Amino acid sequence: MTSLGALWTGTARIEDGDDVTPEAPIAPHMTDPELLADRLLGGGRLTEHECLELLRTPDDATVRLVAAASRLRRQHFGATVKVNYLVSLKTGLCPEDCTYCSQRLGTGAEILKYTWLKPEEAVAQASHGIAAGARRVCLVASGTGPTDRDVDRVGRIVTRLKSDHPDVEVCACLGLLKEGQAERLGSCGVDAYNHNLNTARSHYPEICSTHTYDDRVDTVGRAVDAGLSPCSGLIVGMGESDEQLVEALAALRDLDADSVPVNFLMPFDGTPLEGTWNLTPLACLRILAVARMMCPDKEIRIAAGREMHLRSLQPLALEVANSLFLGDYLTSEGQGAADDLTMIRDAGFTVLGADGSPASPASPAADRSTAPAPRAETARPATSPPPTPSAAPTDSATAPASAPAATPAIRRRGAGTDVAPNA
Ligand code: SF4
């Protein structure tokens, strides 16, 4: 068996029974990311064992993994970046107990808490993101799932939003869906539905006790059955093992979601995962690169937590991911939206739909184009609080955090406030 560390340094331990020959030259190995990219470009797929080996790529070989994954990204999406914009319609006060979530039952996180935005407020918030170049607006509400009255409420928002912005895609994220609700959302103009698997089935009981992994799979299935574009992804850094990360990525591949957001745990103070720092910037790059190689032609979206976990490597992540959220998240503040757009441009990419860039093949609105709109100048994000200590690492793919990271800056602008949004 070839040891991975040796593989990447050009030497190998060749074991044949008890006969071990150290320092023998190695032959090309199928975990070479370039060879795997060749296979994927030819229509093949990764095995779960290969996926695990790639996740365990050493730091000093990670750039090679990124380069290989970048070939797939560019094959399917060119140099475009899809910009998405979150509007939190209802924040906090959730009866569920997801350990990672600042909106959970009994949270001690001092987040904004508000009930449903009025339609005109929601559309005004969304319009800021659209003006900044967002091609998709993601309408999110906390809670177990919507009532039928909630679905009607969201329907009115979507109708109004589509009337003002007919070319924008709308994704709803309202929790677990009951029978018929996905169809009703679709009839109001919703294009996509987000419901993340979040982690591996085998890890799910560790992160939530009030609903099950199967509940989540069922809701994605309801969205698909209703003809909505499925969006489902991950939160990494929650103490999952490398094997569980592979399990989760394989499940997402099987789910065949059109878009796959990859969130990096933001360990809010006042939540059970407070102080959990399992990720390094290079580990985050590996996870994104492997997500790309598991789902070569899907929209891989860099989602919440990118600023604090990828840090200065954010632009490199665009080499494998083709999508991001602009500006702030549901309960925390992101990097300034103007900085997001500058980063995209500086790294040599273009915003999807801007400057005549081609539409995404994975997009349900692939044949629509949106003229670039001038972006609003925004305030810089609030200064982050002081660093918190790192928790013990959990596994090699998510190796020990190399430096203390800042705690999430709680969102105090945009939806639910009188302060202009970060867009
Ligand atoms: S993730 Fe959603 S369901 Fe879970 S606690 Fe947060 S808002 Fe509630």
From TrEMBL:
Cofactor annotation: [2Fe-2S] cluster; [4Fe-4S] cluster
Pathway: Cofactor biosynthesis; biotin biosynthesis; biotin from 7,8-diaminononanoate: step 2/2
Principal EC category: transferase
CDD domains per UniProt: Radical_SAM (cd01335)
Stored Gene3D superfamilies: Aldolase class I
Matching Pfam families: BATS, Radical_SAM
EC number(s) given by UniProt: 2.8.1.6
Free-text cofactor note: Binds 1 [2Fe-2S] cluster. The cluster is coordinated with 3 cysteines and 1 arginine. Binds 1 [4Fe-4S] cluster. The cluster is coordinated with 3 cysteines and an exchangeable S-adenosyl-L-methionine.
InterPro entries in the cross-refs: Aldolase_TIM (IPR013785), BATS_dom (IPR010722), Biotin_synth/BioAB (IPR002684), Elp3/MiaA/NifB-like_rSAM (IPR006638), rSAM (IPR007197), rSAM_sf (IPR058240)
Keywords: 2Fe-2S, 4Fe-4S, Biotin biosynthesis, Iron, Iron-sulfur, Metal-binding, S-adenosyl-L-methionine, Transferase
PROSITE patterns: RADICAL_SAM
Binding-site list for [2Fe-2S] cluster: C138, C171, C231, R301
Domain of life: Bacteria
Region annotated Disordered, chain positions: 355-423
Radical SAM core domain boundaries: 79-303
Claim: Signal is one of the keywords in the record: no
Record field: compositional bias (Low complexity): 355-382, 391-409
Residues holding [4Fe-4S] cluster: C94, C98, C101
Main function: Catalyzes the conversion of dethiobiotin (DTB) to biotin by the insertion of a sulfur atom into dethiobiotin via a radical-based mechanism.
Family stated for the protein in its record: Belongs to the radical SAM superfamily. Biotin synthase family.
Self-association and partners: Homodimer.
UniProt-recorded name of the protein: Biotin synthase
